[in-house]
Write a structure and sequence with these properties.
mainly alpha
C-alpha cells in the first residue's frame, strides 16, 4: 500500500488542474494545512490552476497557517517582549488574570 502523504504529493505534482478542482471544494483551513506541508514547487501550480476567488481564499488561509507554524510557541513570548509592562496598563492583561497565555494553535489548559 502506498504511503498516503507520498500519494497525495504525487497527485498534486502530476495533476495540478484536477487537484485544484478538488481543493476548491474543501474548506480553506483544510486546504491550507495540506498545502503548507508540500513543497512550494508543488503547491504553486495547484494554486495557479484554481479559480481566482478560490485561490485568494486558499492563499489567505495558507498565509495564516504558515504564520502559525512560523510563530509557534514564540508568539506569546514575542508579544510580552514587545509590550512588556504596558499590557496591564492597556487593559489587555491584568495581574489578577487567571487565564494563562497559550501557544497559537493549541487549546488553553
Amino acid at each position: 500500500m502506498a504511503d498516503p502523504e507520498r500519494l497525495t504529493l504525487t497527485y498534486l505534482d502530476s495533476h495540478p488542474g484536477d487537484a485544484a478542482r478538488v481543493l476548491e471544494r474543501i474548506s480553506s483551513v483544510e486546504c491550507a494545512v495540506l498545502l503548507a506541508r508540500v513543497p512550494a514547487r508543488v503547491a504553486a501550480p495547484v494554486l495557479a490552476a484554481m479559480l481566482p476567488a478560490a485561490a485568494a481564499r486558499q492563499l489567505a488561509a495558507l498565509d495564516a497557517e504558515l504564520d502559525a507554524h512560523r510563530l509557534g510557541a514564540a508568539a506569546p513570548r514575542a508579544v510580552l517582549r514587545m509590550f512588556g509592562s504596558s499590557l496591564p496598563r492597556l487593559g489587555v492583561l491584568s495581574s489578577a488574570s487567571s487565564t494563562p497565555i497559550h501557544t497559537v494553535g493549541t487549546p488553553p489548559v
